[in-house]
Design goal:
Layout: H1 7-21, H2 26-45, H3 47-50
Length: 63
């Protein structure tokens, strides 16, 4: 019943998001959502543990 979303459905969702959040907040909202998804995938795959040095020290995140 809720199969794949087609182009018309995606356009309707984008228009509603534009009306709700406004054009100024959409880029920052998309960036935060993307970063959240990436960190979630890294946590699931265990890449956080792979970032440790051979000495056992964690690398500090670059800001």
């Amino acid at each position: 019943m809720f199969g794949q979303l087609g182009l018309p459905e995606m356009l309707i969702i984008m228009v509603i998001a534009l009306l709700v959040f406004g054009p100024k907040k959409l880029p920052s909202l998309g960036k935060s959502l993307g970063e959240g998804i990436i960190s979630f995938k890294k946590a699931l795959s265990g890449q956080d543990e792979a970032e440790k040095n051979q000495d056992g020290h964690e690398e500090k995140p670059k800001t």
